[in-house]
Structures are given as C-alpha cells and as structure tokens.
Amino acid sequence: xxxxxxxxxxxxxxxIAQDRANRPHAFVSDPPLLDDGDCPFCVGRESxxxxxxxxxxxxxxxxxxxxxxRVVPNKYPAVRELNGVAAASPTCTSTAKVxxxxxxxxxxxxxxxxxxxxxxxxxxxxxxxxxxxVTELDESVxxxxxxxxxxxxxxxxxxxxLAYAMxxxxxxxxxxxxxxxxxxxxxxxxxVPPQVELELSHSQAYFADHGQCVFCELLRSxxxxxxRIVAESANFVAWxxxxxxxxxxxxxxPKQHACRYESTDSARLDDLAALxxxxxxxxxxxxxxxAYNYLLHTAPINESRELPHYHWHIELLPRxxxxxxFEWGSGCYINPIPPETAAEQLRA
Amino acid sequence: xxxxxxxxxxxxxxxIAQDRANRPHAFVSDPPLLDDGDCPFCVGRESxxxxxxxxxxxxxxxxxxxxxxRVVPNKYPAVRELNGVAAASPTCTSTAKVxxxxxxxxxxxxxxxxxxxxxxxxxxxxxxxxxxxVTELDESVxxxxxxxxxxxxxxxxxxxxLAYAMxxxxxxxxxxxxxxxxxxxxxxxxxVPPQVELELSHSQAYFADHGQCVFCELLRSxxxxxxRIVAESANFVAWxxxxxxxxxxxxxxPKQHACRYESTDSARLDDLAALxxxxxxxxxxxxxxxAYNYLLHTAPINESRELPHYHWHIELLPRxxxxxxFEWGSGCYINPIPPETAAEQLRA
Lengths: 348, 348
Hints:
alpha+beta, eleven-stranded mixed β-sheet, 25% helix, globular, homodimer
C-alpha cells in the first residue's frame, strides 16, 4: 500500500512502499572493513596523520590513553585548504576572497563555470582505541565529542569567508566509511549546501506565512501524536520523520527553539550526547552492525543573526538499503519501512 | 586542487576533488550477488514471476531460448498497481483520479499530507540466460531492449492519468540490484519526479532567455571542445558531464533535438543500443565488474506537446564510490575523478 509523502520542512517527496521490505536482499549486509593492522587513527600512530589542530585529553592521561579525541586535517580533503598545511588556527584565514578566485570558463563557453572549492576538511578521531561505532565510546568521551563539534564550529565561524560547516559521520562501509576507526568529519565550504538552503528557504517561507518556526510546530505535533517519537530527554526529542527517506531515519532536535548548535550550553550537549548514543544503540539492537550516517544541520557560519525560522537538528540515516537508478534519476527516495513502524521497533 | 562546478542544465553544484582518488579504499569492490541457483528470471522459472505483460521472441524460438525479453509486473512494486493484478493492458486504466484519492491528514495536522502512490512498476527481463551486464547480451537482444523501452513508454502514455515513466537499470549490488540476472525496470508515477522537474524548469528558463535548447547548445559546445567526449555514433553523442556527480558518469543524447524517447525511429534505436553497449564495455574495461545504473530522462508521459526546450537523454552512473554523510546532508556530490580524466580513460 504505497504512498507518496511530503516532508513538512522541505517539501521533499518520498515513496513509502511497505511491500518492498519483503523482497529478497531487501537489506544490505556489507562485509566489515578489513583492518589492515595499520590503522592510522590508533594510539601510537599519530605520525600517520597530519599534525593535530586540537587534542582533548582525559583527566589522567596514560600511555594507552594519552588523548580522548584528536582533530586533524583530512589527508585527502574534498576542499582546498588555503594554506596547504595543518595549523592550530583555522585553515581559511587567507585574505584571498573565497568566491572570487579561480572562476573560469572552459572552451570559452559561458555555461561551464567553476570556482575553487576552498574550505576546511577536518577529521575528528574519537578514541585512541580501535572502536567502530559511537556505542563503543565511553560516556565521557561521547560527551566530549559533542563539545568538540561546538568548539570546531565556533572556530570556523571566526575564520570568516566560509559560508557553511557541516559535521557528519560515516560508520561502516555501506555508509561510505573508508576507515573503520570511529571518527567524524567537519567539512566547511564557501557556499551553503543545497539541502541546507532548501531547509532555510522553506522554513523562512513557513515563518512568513505562519509567524512560527516550522520545526517548533512539527515537534509539538509529533509529541502530541506520539506515533513517530522514538525517545526524549530533558532537552531533546528524537523521532522518525513523516517522510523518512530511508528505514529507521531519526531526527533529533532541541525542544526549545535554537538556530545554532554552537550556542548550546555544555549541560545540554551532555544530554544530547547521551541521547544520540542511546539512539544508535537502539538502531544496532534492531539491525546489528547497521551502517549509518549522522549529520548536523545548523545555521550557516557566515550568518550572525538569530534566525527565528530555523532550528538546528541532527539527522541519523541508517544505510540498510541501497540507493539505485530510480533515486538517482528521480531525486525521490523509496523507503520500504513506514516511519511509524520504524519508531515502534526503535522504541521497543 | 578541488573545485566547485555548476551543471549547465540543472545548476547542480558538484565538488571535483581529485586528491581524494588517492585515499585508501577510494573505490568500492562489492562482492557479487550470490546466485542461489534459483533465479526467478531464468528460463524455465517463468511461473516464479507474475504473468508477462509482453514477451519478445527470437526469430526461431527454442527450448533454451523461447523468448529474448519478458516484461512482467514487479513482484515488490514501489507503487500501488490500481488493478492489483498483472495484465497485458497498462495497469493504470482505472477511472479513479490518481491524485485525488487517499489524500489524508495525520494527527489532524495540515502538514502531514500524503497521497496514494499509484502507478505502474514493471520489470524487463533481458535474457533467458543468467547474464549480469548488458555487455553480455547479444547485439540483437540489446537492440530489442531499446525497442521495448519505446513500446512500454508508448503503452503507459496511452494509459492516461500518470505523469511520468522512468526506465532505469541497476547492475550489481553496489548499484542497488537485488537480483543479479540482467534486467531493467520501468516505474511510472502520478507526479513528475523532482530531478526531471528541475531539468524541465531550468531548460525552459534557458529557452526563454536564449531561444535555444540548452542541451543542443551543450552538445555543440562539448563536440567543439572534445575533452569530455567519450564516443559518437551516427545519431548520438556520449560525454562525461562537466559537473559529473560520480567517477565516469556518462550522458548520451541524440544529436538532433528531440524531447521524447518514444518518438525515436527503430534505426536510431538500434544505433543507440550499440552505443550504450559499447560505453558499458568501455567502463568495464577501465573498472572490471563495475556496478552501474543507467536511466532514461524523457518528456513526461502526460505531456503531448513537442517541447522545444527539453532533450531526452540517458544518464549512465557507475557506482564506484559510496554516497556518505556529507552527500546526504548537503545534497552536493564529491567526485574524485575529473570528467576530463574520466573521458580520456574511457576513450582509450
């Protein structure tokens, strides 16, 4: 009994096609990433990564645990680091104007335009030990991780010139991880990415029409209905979105309106860290070894105003099914698990 | 030396990040789909699929080759077949108005809207033999396949009520194939999918400004430049798009303006079939066993006018890298192989 659902925030269309969950090989089971015994993120191999931008140490460092979390420049960056070297200062402090250099035309034709992808691409190594999922991190390290996201976003804000910074995580090969060792990434770009732009423009239009933040309205409605709620903490709600793009998609948002992750106080971040760890645990209980991504959507770093229409949130996207030809060609996802079913299973 | 490129047709932004091609595990090597010896698409197992909508037989059918191509309803459809049964007639001939039934609100809240995903989901089985890629099909069968796409699209056009029909193909697990046996799918929906809508609206805007089809202009420019051209036939050009979303992406389009695949004559379709087979062969020569999708973008089936701004084409998308957290969160692809390099390798 398939249906087309419309995402209340972005207008995105998704086909919820329950019958497809029964087909053979409906869910992927990727082989784990082979550990070549030479993981560059493990303790003692620090020289295999570029020099750290920041390090977070335990209260009592030891040989086995000299640090909890290390932030290093990505050795294979998706964007061009302006200074070419890892530095404790943000990488984009050059006075070159990001969007003005290297604009060019190819074959003399106006419609082949490109500009330098300047920015910053950091890796956040989350444990000296070779663990894979955030569920294996000590609670105190997990809490630190969410403070690190705040610190790094704050640092990139002050760097100027960049428009957006997105923290995200790839766990296990089906989620695009190329190294097994638990890590996040922070990728800052000179433009606001299209998906974020879509959320910003739609939520702004909603605010103009209704005088309310669409996310705040959505949270109220989800909490009232309850069928898609997965978990709740003192400050946050987690739910499977009405137009979930994939099985067991979960969004996590603060109950109180806030457009910017970096403004969150430490107590709330600790609360969030525990909730995210719990949610990934729930996912792994339903689908052991599930590959997943999560990502942080927050206000652009080049935006200094408080945005009454935008509400930061985390999107957790399990990677249990594969993106195929129809999704590429249509831009529309087919999800075989209705979010109401997903939420019920995750709550259990 | 990363750069942000803008797709001339859709405005889509892509980050071309050459340095990332060097990272470990940059390219996936998925294990092949296990053959359980019980493939429902092989000759002799016709009773394992729903009754055929259409069958295409060789000139001299035999026990081993009673048919070349069979079109059957998808056993696990992404959309709801109106009549619930496979029929030789198109599945959407009911008089119910597609977009009017089953519209509903959840929790009484206006922004949870959904409608029935009515449509048609067909599977095109491309050989009685258990082959995986189109490069293993006999030339005559490959030609027939491209005639089948035309026949099925034409048939769905006359069914009325549906807005769009997309033919696509998933080959190997990394491309989302759940069965190894070579097959295509045709998925018809009551709406024009967002990616197609984007192409239609951008090309219409271009036409309004320039009085030209943007695809025709693009082809002329690509042919003049040559650096991204992969192959050419009497009637078609194949090139790696300037803002390729993934390594070795190839688009194939007719040299003469045409908005609608179904209007293509048989001689041209034969020419196209040979070119597509050749292109997949070139890809498999560069990356043996490459997983790939291809999909057909053509005018909506509910559009009867000739569209001077739209130009049908095929998009071939190899699945050598995985979609990760950044792509989900940003809607922006990171491609480590510049299309100029990809085209050079594919031409060799």
